Amino acid sequence: MAPFGGFDDARSSDFSLEIKPPVVNVKEEMKDVVIPRPDNVVVNSVKLPGSGEEVQGKFDYVSRKLLIVVTPTYNRALQAYYLHRLSEVLKLVKSPLLWVVVEMNVASAETADILRKTGVMYRHLVCSKNMTYIKDRGVHQRNVALEHIEHHRLNGIVYFADDDNIYSLELFESIRSINRFGTWPVAMLAQSKSKAILEGPVCNGSQVIGWHTNEKSKQLRRFHVDMSGFAFNSTILWDPKKWHRPTSDPIRQLDNVKEGFQETTFIEQIVEDESQMEAVPPGCSRVLNWHLHLKARGVVYPGGWLLQKNLDAVISTT
Q: Which residues constitute the catalytic centre (predicted)?
């Protein structure tokens, strides 16, 4: 400090605030430094966060059978509603699942748009069978799907799921356990809509021992099963040697049989008797899907109109 002098008398070096550390020769200083080192040091394995069993659990692969869900559909009122409702169930089913949707004559743009937005893996097929009178369009549509599965040798469990039925999510998870052919009871609303009936197998554990039936006209059927009440291994279609089938003829649904006999004549091509069937679920203790026979009543189109693309319908609420 210079209390009696001006700032001009002071040299800049007298007020330097720079701190200059002493120069250290590292080599010279470290000569005499001894770092103790313990003998027989063993480094244990290092466990990083998110490794080991935690990571393995996230990437565990569970092998599941492919579910091949076949749905015939056609232009009618509430068709879009039915397809959306079924797709919401299929989205919740664990993969892999393939939804085979079959239309008559042409693949409509409306149906294709619905399928693209579902988030479900699908194939959109067309049944182009030219017939003036269609006794049962669903038979020919399902046969198109069966031909597709056979041609491409798709390996999985085939299930015929009409778009207007109601299905439990548990059903789709249960049919993955099927080896050859599985069946279960289906709850059906009677045509009179006054009562519900049960159609399908009577089971003892996983064994089918009898059948539920309440319709006298169908008592002559060999197997009393609804079309949505069974599923089977797809390899039966294209690998007859594996299943010791006596013939290699294509397995198809028949349109020339009496109404109500399509199911039993088709099943007779797959199994010989109840001993080759599996109960789903064991004991057939629960109803997992419903066939309601519901129609879009009161939806009347103007006379003379022919609507080729009518997936949606406006229904008066008055």
A: 263
